[in-house]
Amino acid sequence: MKTIALFFITLFSVGLNNYSIAQVDDKINFDSLLQKSDAVVLNEVIEVNIENESSAEYFVSEKILIKNNKADKYCKIILNESHFREVYDIEAKILSVTGEEIKELDSDEIREAEFSPQAFYSGNNYKFFELSNTTYPFIFEYKYKSQIRTLLFWPDWYPQSDIPTIKSSYKLTID
């Protein structure tokens, strides 16, 4: 029995070592990616609080450095709602690179729409908003909460997106 356990521990250690080596690529220089990119995720925080066996509260906060007008698409946020997910407490603002607030999202700037390409009614709604600024660079910051009424449709987390990410965290709390 000890031999089998030792075998699996060794196999796991070798596999983990190979995986960690595979993550390091000398050809990719993170500093050059930061300089070349049009936008950079400065900080992303995702928190999921499992309240009971059928519901959870989901919190997202993100700060993105927008360097030029090619990155304005990252200032357009679309949030999906359905029978199983309600989005609320939406906040967004534009900050200067020194942290001074330039513009804040008003609640009347949050628009809602229903979209269903295959049916007359699907129950899927979208809340979306956009903030922009004419002076670059700036920091786009947004936050929102959502109530999830089922644990079958777990929200995805991608710590690295199509732009460089400096910090991304995921916190799961289960009572």
Summarize the biggest pleated sheet.
6 strands, mixed
Strand content: 35-45%
Terminus-to-terminus distance: 36 Å
Helix/strand order, N-terminal first: HHEEEEEEEEE
Structural class: alpha+beta
Number of strands: 9
Average pLDDT across residues?
A: 82
Low-confidence stretches: 1-12, 14-26
Report strand order across the widest sheet.
5-4-8-2-1-9
In DSSP terms (H or I, runs of 4 or more residues), the helix count works out at: 2
**Helical fraction:** 10-25%
Rg, alpha carbons? 21 Å
**Judging from the principal axes of the Cα atoms, what is the shape?**
globular
What does this structure look like?
The chain has 175 residues and is of the alpha+beta class. The chain is 16% helix and 43% strand. It contains two helices and nine strands; from the N terminus they run H-H-E-E-E-E-E-E-E-E-E. The chain has a six-stranded mixed sheet with strand order 5-4-8-2-1-9, with no helix packed on it. The chain has a three-stranded antiparallel sheet with strand order 3-7-6, with no helix packed on it. The longest helix is centred in the N-terminal third of the chain and has 21 residues, at 2-22. The radius of gyration is 21 Å and the shape is globular. The chain starts with a helix and ends with a strand. Mean pLDDT is 82; it is low at 1-12 and 14-26.
Features:
175 residues, alpha+beta, disordered N terminus, globular, 16% helix, 9 strands, 2 helices, 3-stranded antiparallel beta sheet, 6-stranded mixed beta sheet
